[in-house]
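Table S4 entry, MmcQ/YjbR family DNA-binding protein.
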Amino acid sequence: MAEEMKRSFERVRQLAEAAGLPETTVGTSYGTPALLVKGKSFVRMKDAQTLVVMCALEEKEMLMELDPSLFFETDHYKGWPAMLVRLASIDDEALTQRLIAAWREKAPRRLASRFGSTVSH
């Protein structure tokens, strides 16, 4: 199980690196591998198949409604600006977009605005 989580997290880490998210470091959050921006976690592994991503509550509701095969929550996450992502179901492009959005949620405003001017959507 630990090896599977390492492989899953490595995919997440590589996509974040390829997206060029500034000031991103690898760390842990709640005892699992995480990506942090300026010391704040924006994504973390829940288990080998599931990623916790930070997101605005309105966006979370919309995404879970649009694609419940990819995005969901458990009772623990209800009312929190975070949702769960099924890593086996999401493609790299969609996962990269979630990583960027999660990074923007946690990055300091000045850093996020500088990054925004260099990325096209």
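The mean pLDDT is 93.
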